[in-house]
Amino acid sequence: MEKLFIPTEEDFRRWIAEALENSLRKLPQILKTPTIEPEKLLNRKEVAGIFQISLVTLHQWMHLGLPFHKQGGRVYFLRSEVMHYLKDKNPKQLQNRIA
């Protein structure tokens, strides 16, 4: 027959202390791990300012396929999506299609 082990308060204290020590040893490694933050959303004025275009032109670019996102009835853009779109489409081509 196996012996029954009943932990004491001191056993629990030791186990908790060991668990804390192990966690604290891992903390520097966790803090060094770069966190990927979500990309900041840009509003219409910010995007128009970056490309030095009017809001009307930006609206026309949106109709031509410029990716955008709506949140709470407002329009936002991800800088990476806008840059990728404009790399594929020459802005001068966009201006010619609008005119």
TrEMBL record:
Check the record and name the SUPFAM superfamilies matching this protein.
Putative DNA-binding domain
Entries under Pfam families matching the protein: HTH_17 (PF12728)
Occurrences of domain Helix-turn-helix (ranges):
41-88
Q: Which domain of life is it from?
A: Bacteria
Its name, as the record gives it, is Helix-turn-helix domain-containing protein
Natural source organism: Rhizosphaericola mali
